[in-house]
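Researcher: We plan to redesign the surface later, but first we want a full-length starting point. Tokens attached.
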């Protein structure tokens, strides 16, 4: 496996030093930078594009969740926290792991095994442009008190709600505070299709397609949401899906 490019964002110098000591026993980790607050962390992450982020939750001014909200694409994230699990129970996360301070060597090694497994499964055969995300890219969504790290390929449907976008995945449908056009620019064209002015679908989640009025199509998604494909887009959809 290639070296795991890693960043630490942690306000405590002592905690950063403890992490660096643990990292010394794992030559596969390439620590490329550290930051002591959220703004520095965001700048560092955007500059070096790490594979792995060790992220403190509780920091002054802005917390770890706010950092994730500021990122366009979220690396594999392992939280570090001085608080027990209740501190993040509201975070319905796909974050890979969280480590309770002080972090012991055995628990750190277990987290690293999870990281390596995740990176191996993340290897993909797609051609990726500099602009677009991939099916395995993650985005962070915060809606009210709940937060999610969502894999792009797990999103079945996106739809306009006012100036924002509702994102459907699994049994969740939180609001992402970006316009659908902004989101569309980043989505991998391999999976996603603009069904109409209001909705974008992931073609992997289509359960059923039926002819509809005036040359349109009606799709039923795996979550039983029904999507009407506009007449113009129906021609494109048939061509794309070879219908």
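Model: Full-length starting sequence:
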């Amino acid at each position: 496996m290639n070296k795991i490019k890693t960043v630490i964002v942690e306000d405590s110098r002592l905690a950063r030093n403890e992490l660096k000591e643990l990292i010394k026993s794992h030559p596969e980790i390439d620590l490329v930078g550290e930051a002591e607050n959220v703004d520095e962390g965001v700048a560092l992450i955007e500059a070096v594009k790490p594979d792995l982020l060790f992220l403190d939750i509780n920091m002054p001014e802005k917390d770890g969740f706010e950092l994730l909200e500021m990122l366009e694409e979220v690396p594999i994230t392992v939280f570090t926290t001085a608080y027990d699990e209740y501190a993040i129970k509201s975070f319905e996360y796909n974050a890979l792991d969280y480590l309770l301070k002080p972090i012991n060597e055995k628990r750190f090694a277990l987290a690293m095994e999870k990281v390596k497994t995740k990176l191996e499964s993340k290897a993909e055969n797609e051609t990726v442009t500099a602009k677009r995300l991939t099916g395995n890219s993650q985005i962070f969504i915060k809606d009210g008190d709940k937060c999610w790290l969502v894999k792009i390929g797990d999103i079945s449907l996106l739809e306009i709600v006012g100036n924002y976008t509702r994102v459907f995945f699994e049994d969740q449908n939180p609001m992402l505070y970006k316009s659908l056009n902004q989101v569309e620019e980043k989505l991998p064209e391999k999976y996603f299709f603009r069904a109409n002015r209001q909705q974008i679908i992931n073609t992997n989640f289509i359960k059923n397609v039926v002819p509809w009025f005036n040359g349109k199509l009606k799709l039923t998604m795996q979550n039983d949401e029904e999507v009407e494909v506009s007449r113009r887009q129906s021609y494109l959809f048939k061509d794309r899906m070879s219908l």
